[in-house]
Amino acid sequence: MVTRAESGFYTVLLTDGRQVRCRLRGRLKQGRADVVSLVTIGDRVRVTLAGGGEGNVEEVLPRRTELVRRAAGPGRKRWLRQALAANLDLLVVVTSVVAPEFNAARLDRFLVVAEDAEIPPAICVNKCDLATGAETAEAVAPFIDTGYPLVLTSVVTGEGLAELRTLLEGRRSAFVGVSGAGKSSLLNALLPGSGQRTGDVNSASGRGRHTTTVAQLLALDDRTWLADTPGLRELSPWGLQRDRLPWLFPEIRAAIVEPCRFPACTHRTEPGCRVLAAVRCGHMAQSRHQSYVKLWDEAA
Ligand SMILES: Nc1nc2c(ncn2[C@@H]2O[C@H](COP(=O)(O)OP(=O)(O)OP(=O)(O)O)[C@@H](O)[C@H]2O)c(=O)[nH]1
Ligand SMILES: [Mg+2]
Ligand SMILES: [Zn+2]
């Protein structure tokens, strides 16, 4: 299993517990110029050993799940398909209530990317010590109807850390989210001694400093893996299909168990739409529906 991927070098954990540093065989790259990270953390690979703790990745085994995003290519001339992690069981989207400011629309997009990859998402709202209970409650309110696991944490007070640990138990998860939300701090709290570097938030801009630069999978115990990843300003879905989009929102899935008035309803403005009815009745947050409409406009 690949536990770290950095500029052409891969740390691979062998089944016997040894770690080797590998490169990728050139033939695996042929004809794949539009793809970044042919090998990513969580990948299962077949390697040949070269001695001295080094080896070559000969084959990447099929991925059970694949977290992919649309990344800007060289010179921003085209889009590339970038795999951020493979074979995850859970994607924990980490946000802060303040510093950086909570951003509901951004969270929606992370959640949709997880759903699109068929990786169950969970929400971790960190830095709860910096906000009042009322502020935190207001921030998370739109997400209650999603039914996603939601954990409120603080690395400072220790609030929610046991709950977060329980959520991760026995799974292979990754922390993703904006820089400065506290992903590495949470990892250090869950795994003392893991030594992930953390960086303060710029007090003028309220932004993180992109402290973590390489994704890495760490073992919390022998059946629990957790990846820390570099902060992402946003996560754009790769090749999102309009007809698939409604299924990526749990509240919409629930609303359209009964069909809307028009069979081709797009759930944006149509009369007799079950989703709009759910929004009116308070079963889906208005902000979540706005994110749906925005993604619909972007999708093909
Ligand atoms: N008050 C408070 N500060 C926190 C908490 N968690 C993290 N921080 C601080 O927030 C800052 C950013 O934390 P990091 O763990 O580096 O954030 P990150 O999400 O890993 O950021 P990147 O690696 O840049 O993506 C650091 O100064 C942490 O000490 C928390 O629960 N409460
Ligand atoms: Mg970090
Ligand atoms: Zn509808």
Architecture overview:
With 300 residues, the chain is an alpha/beta fold. The chain is built from seven helices and 14 strands. The protein has three domains: 2-62, OB fold (Dihydrolipoamide Acetyltransferase, E2P) (Beta Barrel), CATH 2.40.50.140; 84-228, 3-Layer(aba) Sandwich (Rossmann fold), CATH 3.40.50; 245-298, Probable gtpase engc, domain 3 (Ribonucleotide Reductase Protein R1, domain 1), CATH 1.10.40. A six-stranded mixed beta sheet has the order 11-10-9-12-14-13, with helices on both faces. Helix 1 (104-116) crosses helix 7. The longest helix has 13 residues, at 104-116.
What are the key terms here?
single chain, 300 residues, alpha/beta, OB fold (Dihydrolipoamide Acetyltransferase, E2P), Rossmann fold, Ribonucleotide Reductase Protein R1, domain 1, 3 domains, six-stranded mixed β-sheet, five-stranded mixed β-sheet, 7 helices, 14 strands, 26% strand, binds guanosine-5'-triphosphate, binds magnesium ion, binds zinc ion
